[in-house]
Structure formats: C-alpha cells, structure tokens
Design a protein that fits this description.
Length: about 190
C-alpha cells in the first residue's frame, strides 16, 4: 500500500475510533464546540506545526485505545456483575486493587476544579489490573476468553503502545497495526 493509501486508512480508522467513543458513551459536554474553537482554546497556533501534525496522527491511535479500554472495563463489569451480583467489586476484586482504586479516587477528589477519571471504582484501576481481575475470576471469564495468556498478551501489547502515546511518543506503523490486530482479536472474541 502506498503512502496515500496508508494515510486514508489511518484517517478512516480515526473516524471509526471516534464513532466507537460515541458508542462507548463519550460525554457530549464539549461536542458543541467546533474544531476551530477547540484549536483556539488550546492556542495551537503557538505550537510547532510539525510536532502538532505528528501528535494529531497519534490522536486516532489514542482514541482507538481509549475506546478499547472503556469497552474492556464495561465487559469486566458485566461479567463480574453476572457472576457475583451487585457486590461484585468486593467479591471479585482483590484488596490490593480495591485499595489502589480507592486511593487514586480519593487523591483525585482533592482537586475539585478538575474533571474526573470516571464514576466507578473500576475506572481508577490501571490497565494491568484489568488482567489481574480477569485472572482472579477466571471461572467467570473462561467462557469468553480462550486462555489467560491470550488476554495478558492483548492487554500487554495495547498497554505498551498506550504508554508511549500517553507520554508524547510516536508509534511506527507496525506498532499501530499491532494495536489494531489486538483490538480486532478482542472484539471478535468477546464483543465490543
């Protein structure tokens, strides 16, 4: 595929990721803003255009990873709710992970002027914790996930790319394709 074809594919994936965020329940508080209003509010005209363009390319990857993470958290909640009932958080999540989530939420609440990570305690755990929760409740997940090492590989691969992007790094096309492969495999296996 030539460079133009890869660019069109990249943009199309960004559009799909944007739609996935909408389906995943993205808040619409700022959806009334135009792209220009957002750009003006961020003072992007003061930034290096090359750095801004490179970061914009990674934005579509970030959106896909964020939508994956949101859907994985919802999937885990659904399975644990079915397995353990309304007190799934206490029965299905280890003390260590619960303590981590409570601490992170409590720390975030000290900064009342800033938006929140989420409304559920599961929103406050790290991506690696999600794999631990699945493993701790394997009997509830084994009908959906073929093997624990498969889930570990999916989350580990996506988290590695997520961390690069979250720290202002850039992924090569092979890394982006690997993220796409992991997302496709997960969606085909457990649904989106």
């Amino acid at each position: 595929m030539n460079a133009t074809g890869r660019l069109y594919e990249f943009v199309y994936r960004g559009i799909l990721a944007d739609e996935a965020l909408d389906k995943a329940g993205r808040r619409s508080g700022s959806s009334d803003l135009s792209a220009q209003e957002v750009a003006d509010a961020l003072s992007v005209d003061l930034l290096d255009p090359d750095a801004l363009a490179a970061a914009a390319r990674m934005a579509a990857v970030y959106a896909a990873i964020a939508a994956f993470e949101i859907s994985a958290r919802r999937f885990i909640t659904k399975v644990l709710l079915e397995s353990h009932g309304d007190d799934w958080w206490d029965k299905g999540v280890s003390d260590k992970i619960r303590t981590f989530a409570l601490s992170r939420r409590d720390e975030e609440e000290k900064t009342r002027w800033h938006g929140r990570r989420g409304t559920e305690l599961l929103d406050y755990v790290e991506m690696g914790h999600l794999v631990n929760i699945i493993q701790q409740n394997w009997s509830a997940f084994e009908d959906y996930i073929p093997r624990m090492d498969w889930a570990t590989a999916i989350f580990g691969g996506i988290e590695r790319s997520r961390n690069v992007i979250m720290h202002s790094g850039f992924l090569d096309i092979e890394d982006i394709e690997r993220v796409g492969m992991h997302i496709r495999d997960w969606a085909k296996q457990v649904g989106s």
